[in-house]
Amino acid sequence: MSTSRNVAFFGTGLMGFPMAKRLLESGFPVTAWNRTHEKAAPLAALGAQVATTPAQALEHADVAILMLAHAEAIGKTLLAAETAPFLSGKTVVQMGTIGPEESKTLAAEIASHGGRYLEAPVLGSVPQAEAGKLEVMAGGEKALFEELLPVFRCFGPNPRWIGPVGAAATLKLALNHLIAAQAAAFATSLALVQKAHVPLELFLEILRPSAFYAPTFERKLPVMLDPLHAKVNFPAKHMLKDVRLIRTTAEALGINPTLVASLEALFAATENAGLADADYAAVAQVIGGSSSGS
Q1: CATH number among 1.20.1050.10, 3.30.70.20, 3.40.309.10, 3.40.50.720, domain 7-163
Q2: Cβ partners under 8 Å of residue 244, min gap 6
Q3: Signal peptide span per the entry (predicted)?
Q4: Catalytic pick from 21, 90, 133, 172?
Q5: Which of 22, 95, 128, 205 could form a Cys-Cys staple with 154, CB 3.0–4.6 A?
Q6: For this structure, is 172 an active site residue?
Q7: Each residue of 138-163: pLDDT tens digit?
């Protein structure tokens, strides 16, 4: 696939904006659309066309990339009566986080309108999206994945084909479960240390050289201590959405959902505490009992 192929990019939020920028920097013609037009508008200065409707974005595209919040948003955007007719002959790449069954349903819907479909969720956050160092995991026809490699390499150096539709979506949920569980576990340890008046730096000095230390602890510590003033890389509301997908997928596969259900309760409490738009590490405020909901 050459860079002459036109790309429609749907969803230019925290992750979508730098990803669309990477495409432009690599020479791909991009037409961007976002529900909130102001979030897509700055891409015009970088050479993108900015569409006012999904149909307008899709009309002249060869490939449509989706970085939307959830499956419901995808349906309202791409499968609406005024947009769906433009799917014929297009390749749709779903790169956000949705459930495997949602992905399979979307693949069938796209096919019914004459389009091709590939799921390709990514592992990484805003810094990795900006640097082109995301992990791209694809599910669908391998030949289609190989055709799209020039696009995927704009986002990360080593795109991987995982298997059929649903496989990459499930893998992404498995990875996000580790992210959610790790954040909750670290926040709980942090709360134990703080409540017992053990010096925080002493805790970290012992933790850092240990086998169970993770670099993300250091990155998320400032967020956990002051979530309202920290940069948001992944909002708590999106983590809650993902954890709910993890639970339903686990239940469907006969996996004990007890741990995931606990994570769901914690992130729901984080959202209810007024921290939905804060970074997901704000779950520490709920775990430590210091959330004020303001």
Answers
A1: 3.40.50.720
A2: 264
A3: none
A4: 172
A5: 22
A6: yes
A7: 999 999 999 999 999 999 999 999 99
